[in-house]
From TrEMBL:
Origin species: Gelidibacter salicanalis
Protein name: Universal stress protein
Domain of life assignment: Bacteria
Family designation: Belongs to the universal stress protein A family.
Pfam families given in the database record: Usp
Lineage: Bacteria, Pseudomonadati, Bacteroidota, Flavobacteriia, Flavobacteriales
SUPFAM superfamilies: Adenine nucleotide alpha hydrolases-like (SSF52402)
Amino acid sequence: MRHQILVPTDFSDNAWSAALYALKLYANKPCTFYFSHAWTFLNSGSRTHISQSYIEPLIENAKEQLEAVKEKAKLESTSSDHEFETIFSYGSLMDSIEFANKEHNIDLVVMGTKGATGAKKIFLGSNAVTVINKVRRAPLLLVPKKCTFETPKKILFPTAFTRFFGEEIMRVKQLAELHESTIDILHINKKDTLSDIQNSNLESLKTSLKDFEFNFNWMPDYNTKAHAITDFIKDNDINILTMINYEHSFIENLIKEPVIKKLGFHSRIPFMVIPRID
C-alpha cells in the first residue's frame, strides 16, 4: 500500500518541522509526499492598482520556494520508496487541500501549528482551526511547533463510548500499524459504570482492536476533560493524541476557545483529528 501524504507549506520553520515529522513517521512505508502551497496576493488597497509585472515575480518566487522544499525533503528522506510532488495553487489553504484530496485521494494531511504564542496564547492557529472544521475527506495530523520526532510507542484515543465505532477507528489502527504502537483508550466520566449502549460500543471496539496491543483506562472527570487528557499524556508518555471530530464533541468545544489558560489544554505532541464519516 502506497500512502498519499499532503503537507501544506507556507515556507515557515513550523511547516518544515511538520514535514520532517511526516518523513520520519512514514520512514519505512512507501509514500508519495505532496508539498502544497496556496498562493494568495494580500493587498490592503485595490487590486486594480497592482500591475501584473509586479505580481508575476512573486508567483515565480513562491513556485521556486515550493520546489526547494521538495528537494530538501528528498535529501532528508531515508527511503527509496518515497516519492515527492508539488502542488501550487491560487486561493485559500482550504481550496488547496480540497483539490489535493480530490485529485490524489490523500490519506493524511500533515500541518504545523503555531501553538501557544503571545499574551492571548492562541491554540493551534486560525489555519489549523479552519482545516479541522472543514476537512472531511482525510485525517489531519497537527504537529506542534518545535516538535521533534519520537517513535510513537503509545497512541492515546479518548472516547465516551456513546457512538458506534465505524470506519473512523480504521484511521487509529492505520496509525498504530506504522510503528506497532500500543493504543491507550481513555474514558473520562464521573460515573463508574457504563450504560448498555456504552458497553456495547466498548465490546465492538475491543473486537476491532483484537490484533493490536491496547489498554483501557478510566479517569474521573475532574475540572475539565482537557486537564484530564493533558495529565494522562504527561503521566503515561503518550506520543500521539487521536480524536474523532464528531458533531458537538470535545474537539468542537476545544477549538472554539481562544484562550488556552481557560482550557488547560496545550498539546506538545502531535494531534490527529479524524473526520467523522456521515
